[in-house]
What does this fold into?
Amino acid sequence: MTVQVRIKRNIRKILERASVYGAVIVALIIVLFPLYWMFSTSIKPPLKIFSIPPSLIPPELTFKNYADLFVRVPFLNLFLNSAIITGGALAVGLSFGSLAAYGLSRYEFPGSRYFLGFVIISRMIPYVAFVIPIFLLTSNLGLLDTHVGVILAHSIFIMPFTIWLMKSFFDEIPRDFEEAAMVDGASRLGAIRIALRLALPGLGTTAILTFLDSWNEFMFALTITRTFTSKTVPVALVELLERPYQVPWGVITAGSFIFTIPILALGYFIQKYVARSFVLGVVK
It folds into this structure.
């Protein structure tokens, strides 16, 4: 009887592990297959892209699509525009949003209980509702077709998310660290620096999530930009769909794959902060 129980337990453990590994494999396939298909399409000749049946492994390899990408559009300039706009939006959103989150976490003022609710509600409003007001604002300020105009637009939807997420991290940090530093002679600014250091996991999580929002954003960039001096990569790639005779799918997927590489690199280097933030949230 004992042997049968052990066998059943071993079989149950094997089935549980197999189900877990199977679920992980299925999830990886769902997540990674679009990326693989995008890359495989980018190295296929144009006539092989729509071959029937579709080929998972390209029968012919060519990097002509990547060469054509830099001929059809000034891709390096577009990539630099996206980097400048995303970096500027992150700098503005994270700096002001973190300070606002710290203030909401540490100070009480009339209406402070409801202020965070208004912040969350503003985040829930669809982006399309802000397109016309932001266009009019940037137009009146003379910021159309500029990096600053797009940075301002991106900061408007990055900051509420930063405030909401960072406040939860500041709430979990004991005030004793800041009070001890102020007793030792540190100013309030020094105490804020200590709190920010302790909230680095949360700041890293917020940075990567807001980076994704700004890096992939299309609607505001399309509305505000006009020329290649300020256009971003998503806007330029979508404009390639307007070719009158044949859509260059190979070129579009080549640009999309290159545009995805910074996201993968950022996720790889910041994953430890993201994992640590989830662990701290569970423990606390």
